[in-house]
UniProtKB/TrEMBL annotation:
The species this protein was found in: Carnobacterium inhibens
N-terminal signal peptide: none
Protein name per Swiss-Prot or TrEMBL: Fis family transcriptional regulator
Pfam family, one: HTH_30
Annotated InterPro entries: CdaR-like_regulators, Homeodomain-like_sf, PucR_C-HTH_dom, PucR_C-HTH_sf
Length: 287
């Protein structure tokens, strides 16, 4: 189904070059762009149908990568379980800024080599793919995975983001769980650090709809917008768990410069980003 056909059914649908990550929209990768649908205009059944259609549409079968039972189960909606027992997690990856010389097969083999007990790994489309890992006692943590991607990014001159799913026991429900993890990944792609997981974004992702309905939060948001660069500042401190030195490094500014901005924001708003309750409130205002 092409964009014009979808547009005739959902007139408010639109395309962008990035994921946009507005919680009010249901977002999917579409060819080399992103397609967005207004959630308010979708029923639950329509949302599920769009997941089925667009996950299928984005599929570009790559003859370089052998098909697997996991591909058939997750992408082709085959009802046969890809394994008989065990716990598995799905690591999603999305690659940007690749040039025409980028070798997907070479990158995928390098990426797989860092993980133990890989059941399957494949690209779903030109930039997005999955790695499925079987739990056997030890797994690379988030920081280690970030280090891997940073190394590969330097080697291949690309920019990669990843989402580490939870381990789940094998069952038919894994397909629904994957669909939700996929939606989370696409919607949080430009809001989170290079590699993230459910605990990193659960608060912002699941609280966003309730916050949107609050007149108090909306008023505070309007006031927050009047402070230039504050959203970036809040995000940096939140992602670095209140550590001022790490936040300054994240923003590529001197620690004293960051301290000055924090003091100025406190004088203007009465909110101290050094206080964890104030920081939490300010972070919620940015989502």
């Amino acid at each position: 189904m092409n964009f014009n056909q979808l547009k005739s059914i959902y007139p408010s649908a639109f395309l962008t070059d990035d994921s946009n990550n507005d919680q009010n929209y249901l977002t999917f990768p579409y060819q080399n762009q992103w397609i967005h649908f207004d959630k308010k205009q979708l029923t639950s059944s329509e949302s599920k149908l769009l997941h089925l259609i667009l996950n299928k549409e984005t599929d570009i079968k790559n003859p370089e990568n052998p098909q697997s039972k996991w591909y058939d189960f997750l992408i082709e909606n085959n009802s046969i379980l890809p394994a008989e027992s065990g716990n598995y997690r799905i690591i999603q990856f999305n690659i940007k800024k690749k040039d025409t010389n980028f070798n997907k097969k070479l990158w995928l083999n390098a990426f797989k080599s860092f993980f133990e007990n890989v059941e399957a790994a494949f690209f779903i489309n030109d930039h997005y793919g999955l790695l499925i890992q079987h739990y056997s006692g030890y797994s690379l943590n988030q920081d280690e995975t970030i280090g891997i991607l940073q190394t590969l990014d330097d080697d291949f001159s690309i920019k990669t983001k990843g989402y580490i799913g939870q381990y789940w026991s094998i069952s038919l429900e894994i397909k629904d769980i994957f669909n939700e993890e996929q939606t989370i990944f696409f919607n949080q792609l430009d809001k989170s650090k290079q590699v993230f997981s459910l605990p990193d974004i659960a608060l912002s992702y699941y609280a966003s709809e309730a916050l949107f309905k609050s007149p108090i939060i909306q008023q505070l948001k309007e006031e927050l917008i009047s402070h230039s660069e504050i959203k970036e500042l809040i995000t940096a401190i939140w992602l670095n768990q209140g550590n001022i030195s790490l936040a300054a490094k994240y923003l590529y500014i001197h620690r004293n410069t960051l301290q000055y901005r924090l003091d100025r924001f406190y004088e203007e708003s009465g909110l101290s980003l050094k206080n964890r309750d104030d920081l939490l409130l300010c972070y919620l205002l940015t989502i």
